[in-house]
Amino acid sequence: MNNFRSKYRNRYYLANVTPFGTIQLHQRNPLIIALWSVAFPGFGHFLIHKFFTGFALFFWEFYINQLTHLNTAIMYSFNGNITEAKAVLNEKYIYLYIPVYLFAIWDSYRTAVDENKLYLLAKREHAHYPNFSVSPFEMNYLDKKKPWIALVWAMTVPSLGQLYIHRIISAILTLLMTMLIVIYSNMIESLHYFLLGNLSKAKEVIGAQWFLYFPSIYFFGMYDSYANAVELTKLFDLEQTEYLKRNYQSPNFVLHKGEKM
Fold this sequence. Notes:
Shape: elongated
Number of domains: 1
Transmembrane segments: 33-60, 164-184, 205-223
Number of helices: 13
Helix content: 55-70%
Strand content: 5-15%
Largest sheet: 2 strands, antiparallel
Keywords: Membrane, Transmembrane, Transmembrane helix
Number of strands: 4
């Protein structure tokens, strides 16, 4: 969003509507953002719209996890098989994982605190921001979203809830990771045996290293879809309110607290 072309430019904006999603400032709980980084590095940064940083941290965690077989070691340790966990864990790369993991938690928390401060400044400035964006590839606009619909679609297939609220970048990542997890973990085949009551065969075919990524991806898609549907609806209401005040409300109009219209 180029805000330096007009001599009447503003310093801070609440939102920017782009063809691939709506970037907005709103109040966030930094602790929740940090906890999503605990669940999977990069998720906290996706929630605060730092996509390049989020992608870097996400794929770093995924790459190191695959090299060290960390998920498999976690599975063995949760089952009390400490010897097997030590045997499968690759110590050669595990110490590369820890600093980046801690950085993701710290940086997402710090940035969430900063963005909360920027939100307060932007809200006081009442700067105009676009509510409609068109490109040869995609179209996006502000409108009301139903959070429960976003949640239901996210529960069916990860990424559908994000597509509903037009978070294209997050949806692409979620969909690609879901496809990889389903294919390499044999999750559908294991579910088939589970539904048939053949639990031993279901345990045999499931790939724990890949499958343990799924809970983080699945629940992140649900949270991301629901939370942003709520905030996008608030943003739509705010933009409509500001537009009507600016164009139709008399500057001499005063509504006192408790007064009925």
